[in-house]
């Protein structure tokens, strides 16, 4: 059964239209009515009707504006424009947007039946929900790619709105750009795969009708970044409080009593090249939770930070104390330095300083490990996100100390190994993606293969093949979380040639299939 939606500014028209034909007789069902343009767009996005009868004269959004925005979202709904008078310019605009039918009221039932019949023929010949799903999915992938690049970037190359619209199929307009961030903590396991997608859909219904674009980017189970583009004279900014209402309402409805959250609303700008700055300002606002408490929405514009500066906290003495702690592997000294630094902060300190303290602490640990990978910006950022996504200073300190303890313990353990075993483990970690044999490793460290095997087992507690498998599976886990590579591509990238064998080893080591692991992360 095909579905129909009706949008007309005259409530009397809507009432009469319902009875103009026997809809079910023609295999159609009316799924909604609206006499307001903004509500109509929200309902169309929500109900995804096949056919929409619409007038242009709607309050909030005109019919033409709705048609343009709905098509911009990748939906394949077909529109029938119904007006009281002929309007050549309006008809031209409608035709450019793909509207096939322009009807003048009052429309006889025979004409409606003709429209329904013609649409059904086109639907069966050309239209498919599979096509619509494919278009929506493709558009979502493009947008996720865009958001992933921006959210994780340190900087980006300049671009124009036209570049973005052409490359990512956006419908950006000149106007206001603004970022927002929702962070959740302690979300129940059973909600992890559905909670943020449900929030996203509700946000679409609220903001798509009043924005040029509202682009969501879900990062795992607990982080949702949003980008808004809207007209300077719209009321989108005043509507932002709805985000808090939706999050709070969903947590209550789903019984997530132990879940806390923070919402950051970033700065506004007319320059699309400031998007990275806008994202960071939203993140900075959300981090106000650490000092001011959870379950709130923080507008960066409303924050009155005190005069504390980065250099007041991250002094040479602080950095030196951190360095001594990690170089002597004394985590209590390392923790003491952190506590003294955080004690200097007040409830009104800019949370960006907390980020800088964490970054300094993470970098000193990475340097002590003397590992090129550990000091990479990507690795530091990954640890930083894990640490800073915390509701309090005490939890942040605990995570920083845990990270230091884990990495320093690995260094301590490595120093217990003999030179051949240290060189062998490093060679395996750097070359596990090759067709690596024990003989290859033995040649590299200039030992007999059987002797190296015995020495390796004695010092590491693992045999060679187990260590190699662990290295490959760890890399596979990273690629499953952080890349868009297929499972087959990952299998080959980490050194295996048989996908089934790789899957069996992954299940044995991790406990679940690679695809299930990716869906959880």
In short:
The protein is an alpha/beta fold and 521 residues long. The chain contains 24 helices and 10 strands.
Rough outline: elongated
Number of strands: 10
Percentage of helical residues?
A: 55-70%
Could you tell me how far the N terminus lies from the C terminus, measured between alpha carbons in angstroms?
38 Å
Overall pLDDT score: 87
Biggest sheet strand line-up: 2-1-3-4-5
- Note the total helix count: 24
Helix vs. strand class: alpha/beta
Please indicate the percent range of residues in DSSP E strands (runs of 2 or more). 5-15%
Instruction: Give the biggest beta sheet.
Output: 5 strands, parallel
| CA-atom Rg in angstroms | 29 Å
User: Which parts are unreliable, with pLDDT below 50 for 5 consecutive residues or more?
Assistant: none
What key attributes describe this structure?
five-stranded mixed beta sheet, 521 residues, single chain, 56% helix, elongated, five-stranded parallel beta sheet, alpha/beta
């Amino acid at each position: 059964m095909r579905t129909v939606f009706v949008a007309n500014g005259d409530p009397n028209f809507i009432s009469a239209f319902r009875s103009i034909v026997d809809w079910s007789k023609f295999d159609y069902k009316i799924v909604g009515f609206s006499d307001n343009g903004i509500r109509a767009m929200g309902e169309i996005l929500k109900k995804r009707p096949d056919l929409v009868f619409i007038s242009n004269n709607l309050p909030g959004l005109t019919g033409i504006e709705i048609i343009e925005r709905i098509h911009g979202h990748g939906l394949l709904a077909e529109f029938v424009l119904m007006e009281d008078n002929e309007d050549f310019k309006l008809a031209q605009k409608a035709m450019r947007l793909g509207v096939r039918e322009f009807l003048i009221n009052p429309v006889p039932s025979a004409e409606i039946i003709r429209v329904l019949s013609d649409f059904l023929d086109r639907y069966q010949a050309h239209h498919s929900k599979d096509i619509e799903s494919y278009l929506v999915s493709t558009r979502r992938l493009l947008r996720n790619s865009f958001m992933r690049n921006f959210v994780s970037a340190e900087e980006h190359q300049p671009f124009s709105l036209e570049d973005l619209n052409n490359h990512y199929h956006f419908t950006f307009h000149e106007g206001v750009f603004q970022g927002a961030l929702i962070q959740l903590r302690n979300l129940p396991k059973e909600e992890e795969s559905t909670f943020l997608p449900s929030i996203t859909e509700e946000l679409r219904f609220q903001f798509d009708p009043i924005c040029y674009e509202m682009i969501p980017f879900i990062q795992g189970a607990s982080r949702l970044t949003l980008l808004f583009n809207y007209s300077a004279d719209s009321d989108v900014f005043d509507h932002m409080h709805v985000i808090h209402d939706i999050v709070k309402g969903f947590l209550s409805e789903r019984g997530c009593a132990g879940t806390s959250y923070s919402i950051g609303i970033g700065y506004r700008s007319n320059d699309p090249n400031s998007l990275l700055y806008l994202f960071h300002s939203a993140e900075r606002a959300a981090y106000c939770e650490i000092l001011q408490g959870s379950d709130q929405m923080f507008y960066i514009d409303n924050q009155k930070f005190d005069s504390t500066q980065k250099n007041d906290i991250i002094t040479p003495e602080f950095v030196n104390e951190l360095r001594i702690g990690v170089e002597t592997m004394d985590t209590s000294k390392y923790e003491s330095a952190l506590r003294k630094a955080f004690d200097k902060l007040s409830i009104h300190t800019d949370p960006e300083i907390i980020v800088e303290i964490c970054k300094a602490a993470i970098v000193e640990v990475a340097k002590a490990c003397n590992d090129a990978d550990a000091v990479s910006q990507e690795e530091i950022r990954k640890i930083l996100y894990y640490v800073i996504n915390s509701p309090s200073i005490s939890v942040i300190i605990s995570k920083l100390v845990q990270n230091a303890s884990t990495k320093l313990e690995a260094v301590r353990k490595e120093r217990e190994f003999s030179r051949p075993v240290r060189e062998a483990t490093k060679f395996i970690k750097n070359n596990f993606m090759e067709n690596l044999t024990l003989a290859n490793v033995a040649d590299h460290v200039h030992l007999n293969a059987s002797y190296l095997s015995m020495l390796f087992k004695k010092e590491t507690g693992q045999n060679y093949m187990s260590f190699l498998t662990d290295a490959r599976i760890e890399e596979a886990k990273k690629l499953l979380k952080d890349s868009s590579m297929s499972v087959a591509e990952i299998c080959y990238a980490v050194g295996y040639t048989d996908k089934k064998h790789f899957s069996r080893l992954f299940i044995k080591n991790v406990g679940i299939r690679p695809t299930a692991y990716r869906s959880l992360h």
